[in-house]
Design goal:
- With 158 residues, the chain is α+β, with helices and mostly antiparallel strands.
- Helices cover 25% and strands 38% of the residues.
- A hairpin with a 2-residue loop joins strand 3 (51-53) and strand 4 (56-57).
Length: 158
């Protein structure tokens, strides 16, 4: 168990959920000097991506934006279509805010078993694309326990 807990010491990403990506990116650039950003559509057009929401196969679309903040990545997500934890967040919080911290793990199964032993389940997952193709990202419903969602991505490419 202690080995698994050590995995949560070095987040690789901070995730924000927004309802107006263009407005937020403009503000980040004008106010904080953060940018330029890499913006991608998810899923990429024509890609056959595994997606799951609350235990069921799903289909959803979003705009993702990435920016390196030194040793951590800033991800800004605007949900577009389908049921997602991102859309749930916007509704529950009446707008944008900090959504998740992301950590890199070797493989999902041992960490999933540990989190399930703490009463934490998977809320959404999908196949990674681009530079992370072959990996999976998984969101866990930790908001009520730690104040934000937990996202994990495996380091093993399948």
């Amino acid at each position: 168990m202690d080995d698994i807990k050590k995995l949560f010491r070095n987040p690789i990403q901070i995730g924000l959920i927004v309802d107006d990506l263009d407005k937020v990116l403009k503000n980040l650039e004008e106010i904080l000097g953060i940018g330029p950003f890499k913006i991608v559509d998810f899923p990429p057009e024509g890609a056959d991506i595994k997606m799951m929401y609350k235990g069921e196969p799903s289909s959803f679309k979003a705009k993702f934006c990435f920016f390196d903040l030194g040793n951590i990545e800033l991800e800004v997500i605007q949900p577009l279509e389908g049921d997602t934890v991102w859309g749930d967040f916007l509704k529950a919080n009446n707008g944008m805010g900090l959504h998740h911290l992301k950590f890199s793990i070797h493989e999902h199964q041992p960490v999933r078993e540990y989190l399930e032993s703490k009463g934490i389940s998977v809320s959404q997952m999908g196949s990674s694309v681009g530079k992370n193709a072959g990996k999976e990202w998984v969101f866990y419903n930790t908001e009520d326990k730690v104040g934000f969602a937990l996202e994990l991505m495996n380091s093993i490419v399948k």
